[in-house]
Amino acid sequence: MATYKPVVVQTFPRLGERVTQDTVYWRGYKTPVQIKEFGAVNKIDFSPVPPYNYAVTASSRIHIYGRYSQEPIKTFSRFRDAAYCATYRDDGNLLVAGSEEGSIRLFDISGKAPLRQFDGHTKPVHVVGFLSDKYRIFSGGDDYSSNLWDIPSATEIVSYSEHTDYVRCGCASKVNADVFITGSYDHTVKLFDARTKSSVMTIEHGQPVESVLLFPSGGLLVSAGGRYVKVWDVLKGGQLLVSLKNHHKTVTCLCLNSSGQRLLSGSLDRHVKIYSTTSYKVVHSFNYATSILSLALSPEDETIVVGMTNGVLNVKHRKPEERKEKSEKKRQPAYRTYVKGRTYIPKQEDFCVSKPVKRVLRKYDKLLKSFHSSKALDAVLEPPIRLYTPEVTVAVMQELHRRGTLRSALAGRDEKQINLLLTFVARRVIEPRFTPILVTVADMITDIYQPVVGQSPIVDRQFLRLQEAIGKEIDYQEELLEVLGMMDTLFATFTKKRATYLEENKSNGLTETIKPNTNS
């Protein structure tokens, strides 16, 4: 009796994902840690000095987390209502935050009570930050105003009321201590100089501005609003350099990595996109569970923290670099042991003993070996095989067709099984690698179950889906044939025709034209 040969599953080349240096770099993070906050996380800010703790603003509290702590190491809760935009100073000693009641509070990291309170806004303050001189604070509120405050005297220096809608984002220049930028829901981004009484530049973004970011050099400005991320050249008077539209919903936050060569954007579409700042193309992306409100990257790109609308804080830490040299040294003796004798060539007088190799058959092979055709087909229609390795399902159908038992395996099925078969066929019949056998399967199913058409609305719906899929594929193929005909015509016009009646005889530097004999 001949031994059973397992079903040969035809392999097809896959178009794998292009692995780049960015892919390897941004995939080098551990499994994320989930931390639940009391409300939506509206701001995350890393301390610029070691150990790089980060402040999380959510609901009416500001929590300070260590790099690897899952519980807050400090909490500021002196707010009657919601707190907004807790931001560190450059030296990491002070923290400033806005609030729903319109006041601005300044905290010392080592204390709990506010050092200063700045009152002047009449509506909630959503954006605050330090100027680079460390002694002044800028703010923007829902009263349409952008203010500048003096820390030592706790007084207002100047107030600008040029926006016509809520001011929801802002940033300060690291190059010039008098320059700060605000973005508003009036679709504009304004650049202010503390030495002047009005804005020195206005940029029209075209959508309500949710976030602004200034490059460390101070020459480029990034604004986010709607589905757009736009880059502007400040030195050229606010000239638009590039407009990016890679998100499907509103972009809510922006961030730069430590080198300034990668720009990160978070959106309500649950994605974080990473762009190259030279080509402004997406080099990588992260997918999250819910909509993203805030995003921050640690100064050494060691930790990426994302805040979401459901109050969950997603923290990813970079994996430690593996020490390859030590691991290789440990493996060397074991490797030599395993390969010992592998290159030995037996002599003529040697007696070779071969160990029989036990072949493990899969479930569908065992059923086919026992001639259980219907059960073998059921085995390959299970979700793990049907969804992730459809080539196995098609290979078993091909084997049943070769044996002549495919029709009997398809017959005698109930409504649920017919629905499963038709769903698989309608989904995969348009794939060229599966089309030949699945067309045969569809033909057999139609012949077998034609008498019961009209008795089950579920089966009828699947037959209509199959008809629609095949109809669309036929139309698609007809269009491709038309395009192929057009291309053949174009290629034919580009073909060089041979000269039939003129020949050029170039010899001795002279050109002689010879006409063909017309008498012949």
Automatic annotation (TrEMBL):
SMART domains: WD40 (SM00320). It is found in: Nucleus, Nucleolus. Residues 344-490 form the U3 small nucleolar RNA-associated protein 15 C-terminal domain. One of its GO terms (biological process) is positive regulation of transcription by RNA polymerase I. InterPro entries: U3_snoRNA-assocProt_15_C, WD40/YVTN_repeat-like_dom_sf, WD40_repeat_CS, WD40_repeat_dom_sf, WD40_rpt. Keywords: Nucleus, Repeat, rRNA processing, WD repeat. It comes from the Eukaryota. WD repeats lie at residues 118-159, 244-285. GO terms for cellular component: nucleolus. Ribosome biogenesis factor. Involved in nucleolar processing of pre-18S ribosomal RNA. Required for optimal pre-ribosomal RNA transcription by RNA polymerase I. Part of the small subunit (SSU) processome, first precursor of the small eukaryotic ribosomal subunit. During the assembly of the SSU processome in the nucleolus, many ribosome biogenesis factors, an RNA chaperone and ribosomal proteins associate with the nascent pre-rRNA and work in concert to generate RNA folding, modifications, rearrangements and cleavage as well as targeted degradation of pre-ribosomal RNA by the RNA exosome. This is U3 small nucleolar RNA-associated protein 15 homolog. It comes from Trogon melanurus (Black-tailed trogon). The gene is Utp15.
